[in-house]
Design brief:
Length: 258
């Protein structure tokens, strides 16, 4: 599949996906989500890639699902074509780490897409919001659930009930983003973080990701039991021996993902 609404670039062991519908502020239409899904699957199948960065432009990560595409749909349409759901979940399914590098607007589905990534690095001009209520609908791709887990009920309820946007500093205070970076340096910094992650043991990263995500899904005691089991399982990999030997020998580990 060739892409028209995203750019996919490989830099060493890192894939950079740039959402690229500048005239519509990267509004997420079917074509873009199909292309993004295809790109994520290609990256997942490509052994040379260890980490992905998803970004937009300096003005918009993504201003939401494409309202012009959605506007005329009926209930029967959205239900029968499994509207959006069919091609929206891939980012939350991939086992490889994904970083969202968010500058400008991340609204509605754009905010939801960023929250599906493993963590969010925000440009200092980033603005997050779930404005769907202003369109007579509600978040449809996990926003009411993920935002509430990130920032708590009161702030999530206020954001979703009013459609108010949160700036980068508020998002960092609230725990929505891991840190703020000057917008002009955002992508390079995200790529450099991703390059470091891509050098690490992939099996360890896979189970790490599963383990942290489990914290959102199961009670604490269950999550800790899960973590213990997958922690033990990593001792079946050569990477564990290599990582610990390298520390003792004061050298950089050479992980083989085995
Ligand atoms: N859809 C389509 N076009 C959009 C758009 C969007 N979400 N956002 C912006 N655009 C287009 C504008 O129409 C305009 O196009 P032209 O008029 O030039 O043709 C162009 O991008 C530039 O936008 P503005 O002229 O409005 O630019 P401003 O700088 O003045 O304002 C803004 C920027 C981001 C504040 C404003 O564009 C805005 O409020 N945009 C809409 C934000 C919004 O409401 N987003 C939520 C969309 S609803 C689901 C999963 C997900 C969803 C639903 C279901 N399932 C799994 C079932 C998600 C729903 C949503 O995201």
């Amino acid at each position: 599949m060739s892409y028209e609404t995203i750019l996919l670039e490989e830099r060493g062991a890192v894939a950079l996906i740039t959402l690229n519908r500048p005239k519509a502020l990267n509004a997420l239409n079917k074509q873009l989500m199909d292309e993004l899904t295809d790109a994520i699957r290609r990256i997942e199948a490509n052994d040379a890639i260890g980490c992905t960065v998803i970004t937009g432009s300096e003005k918009a990560f993504a201003a939401g699902a494409d309202i012009k595409e959605m506007q005329s749909k009926t209930y029967a349409d959205v239900m029968m074509e499994d509207f959006i759901t069919a091609n929206w979940e891939e980012v939350s399914r991939t086992r490889k780490p994904v970083i969202a590098a968010v500058a400008g607007y991340a609204l509605g589905g754009g905010c939801e897409l960023a929250m599906m990534c493993d963590f969010i690095l925000a440009g200092d001009n980033a603005r997050f919001g779930q404005p769907e209520i202003q369109l007579g609908v509600i978040p449809g791709s996990g926003g009411s659930q993920r935002l509430t887990r990130f920032v708590g009920k009161s702030k999530a309820m206020e954001m979703c009930m009013t459609g108010r946007m949160m700036d980068a500093e508020e998002a960092e205070r609230a725990g929505l983003v891991s840190r703020i970076i000057p917008t002009e340096d955002l992508v390079e910094e995200a790529m450099s973080v991703a390059a470091k992650i891509a050098e690490l043991s992939r099996p360890a990263l896979f189970v790490l990701k599963e383990s942290v995500n489990r914290a959102y899904e199961v009670p604490m005691a269950e999550g800790i039991r899960f973590e213990r089991r997958v922690f033990h399982s990593l001792f079946a990999f050569d990477d564990q021996t290599e990582g610990m030997e390298a520390f003792i020998e004061k050298r950089t580990p050479q992980f083989k993902n085995k």
